[in-house]
């Protein structure tokens, strides 16, 4: 129960960060289009820094085994998400933004500060597993979904700062190399910006949107239900039936980290990529904002269900 309460508090904090961006646009201090600059900073600077910083821990065989378990669980979850999204896209007529919204969660921007606050700094390392899997997929599969089948540029994908950051981070972890203090503090500082900056973008994008109109839209409720309830419940049941909690001494909490990422609201990256690729970023932001509000209740409930069955 304590973990569930802490989760609700931290999610509420992020919601208020988004509210700051919304009010700043309403007050005329910023324009909605100014958010594009912040979006690019988050995607190409803050996100890679989070990835590299998470790998700056001491290498041990136990840590490596735990990371491999987390990676395996994250891969399994994404098979469920992408497979489920594909199955539902036909009968529910999901467009690119909707499909990406049910498949990709706010794993980096939200889960890193949540895990740090709720479980402790030492557990942030395991969030990298989900971030790694999702980063690779969102810059390959996710982009094609949002762009609705446009041709992929694999050279751009491989040279994306986030993909490079994964490679650099793992090399540093495997070799035991720690960055110089000055460089480490710089990277950590940019990484710490990701939560506030991402939520600021979401708030700014909907700054010119009537919130009454937002909550009168029917489709986002369906997307939020799939994203926040249906897929997380399926994940919990699969974790429980698989017996994965016996694979590592800390498996219960490692799998909880993966579940938190799975049950998180829609990835802010969906809004940012929709904005970058000229898709309906405003609609993506509407879905994002609704999912952030609803997850204040749904994420703690998913953790309670997980604790009951694992």
From TrEMBL:
InterPro entries the UniProt entry points to: Mem_transp_PIN-like (IPR004776), MFS_trans_sf (IPR036259), Na+/solute_symporter_sf (IPR038770)
Primary localization: membrane
Compartment(s): Cell membrane
UniProtKB keywords: Cell membrane, Membrane, Transmembrane, Transmembrane helix, Transport
Record bears the keyword Transmembrane: yes
Family annotation (Gene3D superfamilies): 1.20.1530.20
Membrane topology of the entry: Multi-pass membrane protein
Pfam families in the cross-refs: Mem_trans
The keyword Membrane belongs to this UniProt entry's keyword annotation: yes
Domain of life: Bacteria
Residues passing through the membrane, by range: 7-25, 37-55, 67-88, 123-142, 163-181, 193-214, 221-241, 253-274, 286-306
Family classification: Belongs to the auxin efflux carrier (TC 2.A.69) family.
Name of the protein in its database record: AEC family transporter
Provenance organism: Claveliimonas monacensis
